[in-house]
């Protein structure tokens, strides 16, 4: 693959054609926060945390989808970006009712970690306290909308990896909600295979295993790249 | 139909129209219908029937004639004489006008609009040339106005490249608000790879107070079809879609009829005008989401997916409908295309100011004397629109601001009234040209309240995909509500500014990125009004009720209340 | 050297943050040379004193009494610190924000088995609930935050130590997570 050279945070860095800015940055030990992004899933660009400044671009660009190009000049941690990221996570914390202390995923939560990492010690916006339901109709799993950040990892993995497309979104704006099978209780979904991929990829305690109590829900994500790698090999005719 | 037949038909219909002693054009645009235009038409029809429907008297129900607040409108055409326009006609007045004309008696004139009325004389009508002059459901009348002649010219005399070049030379830019050079976009799609290409006309007009596109689709549907067909030839597409918002049933129905009529006449479909070019147009109806006016969301909606924007690039010009190169233009942009070829790109380019060429249609509304739909040359000073065409503010109120660009635009203050209205100048003022909504506001409008209104619209219409737009708009709305109800602190004002800037810089699509504009522009030009709300708990315009207390004052009040209770030995 | 005048206060919370404070154990004795605890649930003082150097406040602002005390504290303290998640986010205390106060009181006290009759007396004696539970920083200026439910003794010590050294309060990444 042809190599290209670009500047990230004043350092000249070489990258391969086709890599995203996020991949290049991570390869070089530059940590850009992400939430909706997950290696192996199609990029969505919804959380906006991975925005970086690109010289010549009028507005920051999402590094998860922007391809590295020769001569690009990129800044990943300007004061403005750092502040914007804080505000974005604060917005997420205010939007739904996360209440870490009573969450199944307390201390294992990507949103919680992200907030601490970004130095958020309080939220400057009003907590919206939308009263949202919980769907515990499925035998093994449950969904608590109050903890959902609408990253849509569940929707994407169910569609693209499991092939079931059980999950989708209804409504719009801040009333958007994840729904199973055209908005039925998850327990009555006929498309869901109970594979649990969505549960494992959910960054917060929105999707969880029943029976887990506060802080007990730990998630295991390595399966995703294993599956995708085996599929890739199989498609090439190799032995998985 | 071939080109010769087209020209012959145009000649025949024109001759027949010119042979009429009297042509009565009754505006049947939505506002005039609401004001009673149908009764006027019925009365005139009855009268004509009583006269035996003479061939030299013609009654036409037209699309929008313009000054909507003056409806029902009646335009009278007599060969060799200046045309006359009556406002606020009633069935009785219309019949008496007809009778007086027939007897060549003096016509009652109290409702006659003056011949030199600036509302008409200051306009330059290209896109709206036929609006209000023809029956929108009558193909022949469109053809008599030179309709489909531009298409014939392009198909027979020009290569697709030449057609693209003409649009480039015209200097036309996107009329949906973005202002991207149309010709450049055409060339991009033309060069796009792939065996299939598509054209999409964006008729998902949704800005509060804007109805240019609806009026154009309802008043002159064939013009849009012709523009799309020309684009189809120029970029090499065989299929076009018009995406009409669901709230515009009349527009959709007229476009459907127009497509059918044009196909029957050989002006669309296989082998258009006996050329080797085939082109189909279909209608797609939106389901009421403002965000579907955003091009990638619109494409998703056409393909039957959730109407949600996606990250660009790739732009639709590279990968649009089903991954094929797709040209998306606003219906008004397509409405300009036939004019570019009929008057020539140079003549088109001669109109306008700076990098903004041609004309722009505006829906002029708000506290202005003459509400209505107008088409003006780019670069016209805002003052001329408001005070000459618009006739100034109603009830003699003082001008405070003009809002352009709807929820994505901003407010222009009185001191900037002499600004030429074009893409660059409006942007420099923190507003945008937008699709053409122009709301005039007087001293009675509170700018914080106005900003809050637009923010409520945006939070409702956000698709929910990206965080800043989904949640940021809600928090901005809450901050504005606090300012309006008197409970905001100075820190809320700071947070408001920070949040607006963040939402503007980080949102995924244009809806979110532009959503803070009404707030930022009012903060820029009317900051004192915000300050008065926050520091003095006073709404200078007298709109906001200020019935809440900020928490620190609430606490003070409470302490006093508690102290009083204690003295009385009550409670505590 | 005069000792740092410290107060603690307990608004709408479970007192867990104060328990965690006590969990400082022996370290409390070590810092007692430098710190004088003059007000709070752990000491016997009725009136919030003037001239506080630092006040740690546990709990969210849930009723008018909380609001009154908080504003008094703000006036009488140089530094005001939100102590624990309830003070910072509203946490569990704010879960009642899903409901209106009236619905809530009716559901809890006046409906169902064993319900209490409505009484004017109770309404006069008990402090009136605010329409919404609020974090402290939405009511007054807050100078620093100690997140956690409850915050570990280590976090509390880290904050007190930096205060004693006259430094700005900064917690490390692992010490500032909610929950």
UniProtKB/TrEMBL annotation, chain A:
Q: Which residues form the 4Fe-4S His(Cys)3-ligated-type domain?
A: 80-119
Question: Which Gene Ontology terms of cellular component type are present?
Answer: membrane
Q: Which Pfam families match?
A: Fer2_4, Fer4_Nqo3, NADH-G_4Fe-4S_3
Please tell me where this protein is predominantly located: membrane
UniProt domain 2Fe-2S ferredoxin-type: residue ranges: 2-80
**Cell compartments where the protein resides:** Membrane
- PANTHER family linked to this entry: HYDROGENASE SUBUNIT, PHOTOSYSTEM I IRON-SULFUR CENTER-RELATED
Q: What is this protein called?
A: NAD(P)-dependent nickel-iron dehydrogenase diaphorase component subunit HoxU
Organism placement in taxonomy: Bacteria, Pseudomonadati, Thermodesulfobacteriota, Desulfuromonadia, Geobacterales
From TrEMBL, chain B:
Question: Gene3D superfamilies from the xrefs?
Answer: 3.10.20.600, 6.10.250.1450, Glutaredoxin, NADH-ubiquinone oxidoreductase 51kDa subunit, NADH-ubiquinone oxidoreductase 51kDa subunit, iron-sulphur binding domain
Xref: Pfam families: 2Fe-2S_thioredx, Complex1_51K, NADH_4Fe-4S
Could you tell me the keywords of this UniProt record? 4Fe-4S, Iron, Iron-sulfur, Metal-binding
Q: What GO MF annotations does this protein's record show?
A: 4 iron, 4 sulfur cluster binding; FMN binding; metal ion binding; NADH dehydrogenase (ubiquinone) activity
Q: Where is the NADH-ubiquinone oxidoreductase 51kDa subunit iron-sulphur binding domain?
A: 448-493
Domain of life assignment: Bacteria
Name the family.
Belongs to the complex I 51 kDa subunit family.
| UniProt protein name | NAD(P)-dependent nickel-iron dehydrogenase flavin-containing subunit
Per the UniProt record, the source organism is Trichlorobacter thiogenes
UniProtKB/TrEMBL annotation, chain C:
* Membrane-spanning intervals of the chain: none
Q: Which keywords does this chain's UniProt record carry?
A: Homeobox, Oxidoreductase, Periplasm
Question: Which InterPro entries does the entry mention?
Answer: Hydrogenase_assoc-protein, NADH_UbQ_OxRdtase-like_20kDa, NiFe_Hase_small_N_sf
Q: What is its main location?
A: periplasm
Query: Per the database record, which ranges form the NADH:ubiquinone oxidoreductase-like 20kDa subunit domain?
Result: 14-162
UniProt keyword annotation of Oxidoreductase present: yes
As for subcellular location, the record says:
Periplasm
Gene3D superfamilies reported in the protein's UniProt record: NADH:ubiquinone oxidoreductase-like, 20kDa subunit
Q: Name one GO molecular function term.
A: oxidoreductase activity
- One GO location term (cellular component): periplasmic space
> Does the keyword Oxidoreductase feature in the UniProt annotation?
yes
Which Pfam families does the entry link to?
A: Oxidored_q6 (PF01058)
Matching entries from PANTHER family are given as: COENZYME F420-REDUCING HYDROGENASE, GAMMA SUBUNIT, HYDROGENASE SMALL SUBUNIT
Which protein, by its recorded name, is this?
Answer: NAD(P)-dependent nickel-iron dehydrogenase subunit HoxY
């Amino acid at each position: 693959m042809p190599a290209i050279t670009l500047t990230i945070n004043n350092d000249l860095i070489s990258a391969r054609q086709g890599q995203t800015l996020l991949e290049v940055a991570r390869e070089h030990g530059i940590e850009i926060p992400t939430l909706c992004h997950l290696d192996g899933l199609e990029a969505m660009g919804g959380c906006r945390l991975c925005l970086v400044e690109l010289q010549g671009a009028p507005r920051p660009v999402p590094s998860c989808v922007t391809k590295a190009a020769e001569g690009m000049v990129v800044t990943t941690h300007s004061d403005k970006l750092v502040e914007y990221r804080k505000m974005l996570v604060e917005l997420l914390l205010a939007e739904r009712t996360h209440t870490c202390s009573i969450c199944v995923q307390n201390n294992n939560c990507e949103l919680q970690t992200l907030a601490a990492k970004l130095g958020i010690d309080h939220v400057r916006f009003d907590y919206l306290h939308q009263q949202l339901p919980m769907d515990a109709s499925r035998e093994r799993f449950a969904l608590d909308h109050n903890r959902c950040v609408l990253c849509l990892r569940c929707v994407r993995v169910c569609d693209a990896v499991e092939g079931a497309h059980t999950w989708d979104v209804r409504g719009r704006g801040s009333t958007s909600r994840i729904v199973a099978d055209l908005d039925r209780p998850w327990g009555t979904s006929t498309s869901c295979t109970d594979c649990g991929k969505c549960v494992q990829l959910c960054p917060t305690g929105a999707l969880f295993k029943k029976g887990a109590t506060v802080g007990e829900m730990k998630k295991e994500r390595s399966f995703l790249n294993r599956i995708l790698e085996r599929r890739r090999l199989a498609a090439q005719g190799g032995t998985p | 139909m071939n080109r010769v037949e087209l020209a012959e038909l145009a000649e025949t219909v024109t001759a027949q129209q010119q042979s009429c002693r009297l042509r009565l054009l009754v505006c049947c645009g939505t506002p005039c219908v609401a004001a009673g235009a149908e009764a006027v038409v019925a009365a005139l029809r009855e009268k004509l029937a009583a006269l035996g429907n003479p061939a030299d008297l013609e009654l036409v129900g037209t699309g929008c004639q313009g000054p909507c607040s003056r409806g029902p409108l009646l335009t009278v055409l007599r060969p060799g004489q200046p045309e006359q326009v009556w406002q606020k006609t009633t069935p009785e007045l219309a019949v008496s006008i007809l009778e007086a004309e027939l007897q060549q008696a003096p016509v009652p004139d109290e409702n006659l609009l003056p011949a030199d009325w600036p509302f008409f004389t200051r306009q330059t009508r290209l896109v709206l040339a036929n609006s209000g002059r023809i029956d929108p459901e009558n193909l022949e009348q469109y053809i008599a106005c030179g309709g489909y002649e531009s298409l014939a010219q392009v198909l027979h005399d020009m290569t697709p490249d030449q057609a693209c070049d003409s649009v480039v030379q015209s200097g036309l830019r996107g009329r949906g608000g973005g202002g991207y050079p149309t010709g450049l976009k055409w060339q991009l799609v033309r060069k796009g790879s792939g065996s299939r290409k598509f054209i999409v006309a964006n008729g998902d007009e949704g800005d509060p107070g804007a109805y240019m596109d609806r009026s154009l689709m309802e008043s002159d549907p064939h013009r849009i079809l012709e523009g799309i067909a020309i684009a189809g030839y120029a970029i090499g597409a065989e299929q076009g879609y018009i995406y009409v918002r669901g709230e515009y049933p009349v527009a959709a129905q007229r476009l459907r009829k127009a497509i059918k009529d044009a196909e029957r006449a050989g002006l669309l479909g296989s082998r258009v005008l006996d050329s080797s070019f085939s082109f189909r147009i279909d209608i797609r109806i939106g389901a009421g989401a403002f965000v579907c006016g955003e091009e990638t969301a619109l494409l998703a909606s056409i393909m039957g997916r959730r109407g949600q924007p996606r990250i660009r690039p790739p732009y639709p010009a590279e990968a649009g409908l089903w991954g094929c190169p797709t040209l998306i233009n606003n219906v008004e942009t397509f409405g300009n295309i036939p004019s570019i070829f009929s008057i020539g790109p140079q003549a088109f380019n001669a109109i306008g100011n700076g990098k903004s060429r041609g004309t722009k249609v505006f829906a002029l509304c708000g506290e202005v004397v003459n509400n209505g739909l107008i088409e003006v040359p780019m670069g016209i000073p805002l003052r001329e629109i408001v005070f000459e065409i618009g006739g100034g503010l109603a009830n003699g109120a003082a001008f405070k601001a003009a809002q352009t660009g709807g929820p994505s635009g901003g407010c222009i203050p009185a001191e900037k009234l002499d600004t030429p209205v074009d893409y660059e100048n409006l942007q420099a003022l923190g507003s945008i040209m937008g699709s053409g909504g122009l709301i005039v506001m007087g001293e009675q409008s509170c700018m914080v309240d106005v900003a809050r209104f637009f923010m409520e619209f945006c939070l409702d219409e956000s698709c929910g995909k990206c965080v800043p737009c989904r949640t940021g708009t809600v928090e901005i709305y809450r901050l504005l509500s606090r300012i309006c109800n008197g409970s905001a602190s100075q820190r809320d004002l700071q947070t408001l500014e920070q949040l607006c800037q963040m939402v503007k810089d980080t949102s995924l699509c244009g809806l979110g990125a532009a959503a803070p504009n009404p707030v930022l522009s009012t903060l820029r030009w009317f900051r004192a009004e915000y300050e008065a709300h926050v520091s003095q708990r006073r709404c200078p315009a007298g709109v906001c009720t200020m019935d809440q207390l900020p928490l620190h004052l609430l606490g003070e009040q409470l302490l006093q209340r508690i102290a009083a209770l204690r003295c009385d030995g009550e409670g505590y | 050297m005069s000792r740092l005048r410290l107060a603690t206060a307990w608004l709408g919370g479970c007192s867990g943050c104060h328990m965690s404070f006590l969990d400082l154990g022996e370290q409390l004795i070590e810092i007692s040379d430098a710190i004088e605890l003059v007000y709070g649930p752990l000491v016997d003082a009725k009136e919030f004193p003037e001239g506080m150097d630092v006040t740690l406040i546990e709990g969210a602002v849930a009723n008018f009494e909380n609001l009154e005390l908080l504003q008094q504290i703000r006036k009488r303290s140089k530094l005001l610190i939100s102590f624990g998640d309830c003070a910072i986010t509203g946490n569990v205390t704010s879960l009642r924000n899903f409901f209106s106060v009236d619905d809530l009181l009716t559901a809890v006290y006046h409906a169902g088995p064993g319900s209490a009759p409505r009484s004017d007396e109770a309404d006069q004696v008990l402090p009136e609930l605010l329409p919404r539970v609020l974090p402290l920083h939405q009511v007054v200026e807050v100078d620093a935050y100690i997140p956690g439910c409850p915050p570990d003794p280590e976090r509390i010590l880290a904050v007190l130590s930096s205060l004693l050294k006259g430094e700005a309060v900064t917690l490390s990444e692992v010490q500032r997570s909610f929950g």
